[in-house]
């Protein structure tokens, strides 16, 4: 048992580090984002992994929206290890059976639609490569 606990903690720490890097990059853009997945952390029970994940998400104003069991094992034990988290408001959320897996289907309806069409934007930039600087200097000499 202790080796499994250590392995889980190590995996959680590695995942937390990677998730932290991703969240830092997303936060710089200032956009709305949605994170979906299987965290393998039971979010309905207090514990070190649950607290660590929540603290990390809270740093970026992200909330986990699913508050009911999302996985049922063969013995019938229920856990909330899958979630949809975002920095957006949610109008409704639900969990449904897929009859294909021991994990459930998760659905969230957000308070505003994600834009499906965006207008192209054009950005002009100067290329200050050494070759272009030399060409510019030669033009000035003429």
Automatic annotation (TrEMBL):
- Which stretches are transmembrane? none
Which intervals hold domain Endonuclease/exonuclease/phosphatase?
A: 16-105
What InterPro entries does this protein's entry cite? Endo/exonu/phosph_ase_sf, Endo/exonuclease/phosphatase
Official protein name in the record: Endonuclease/exonuclease/phosphatase domain-containing protein
